[in-house]
Amino acid sequence: MTKRMRRMLWATLGVVTIFVVMAVGVFPTRQYLDQRSQTADLRSQLHYLQSENTKLTEQIDSLGTAEAIEQIAREEHNYVRPYEENYVVVVPPGVVARVPSVWPF
């Protein structure tokens, strides 16, 4: 073997070694870091969803009472009990009501 062929062989061996090191070390490391970032995002999302589930569970528990059901019926569906009257005040367009700035007026 000539000196030139040995240099070429060592250069090729060096390049192959670099590619092997990158394939074994660098690419999996990048994948690991990406997965770690994704895991942090998913944990944040999980925390948010757990807090929402807690709020909804509390809301479901509160809807089990007759008072809560009646309050929602009155506010959202204009429910009135027998012998009660419901009034709706409609202000004509363009009319501005003057309200005193001091309480009681």
In a few lines, what is going on in this structure?
This protein has 105 residues and is mainly alpha-helical. The protein contains two helices and no strands.
Characterize the structure shown.
The model has no long low-confidence stretch (mean pLDDT 85). It is elongated and about 110 Å long. 69% of the residues lie in helices and 0% in strands. With 105 residues, the protein is mainly alpha-helical. It has one domain. The protein starts with a helix and ends in a 28-residue tail after the last helix. The protein has helices at 3-62, 66-77.
Sum up the structure in keywords.
105 residues; mainly alpha; 0% strand; elongated
Task: Quote the distance from N terminus to C terminus.
Answer: 109 Å
Average pLDDT for all residues = 85
- Going by helix content, strand content and strand pairing, the class is mainly alpha
* Tally of individual domains: 1
If you compute it from the alpha carbons, what radius of gyration comes out, rounded to the nearest whole angstrom?
36 Å
Give the SSE order as H and E letters.
HH
Write the layout of secondary structure elements.
Layout: H1 3-62, H2 66-77
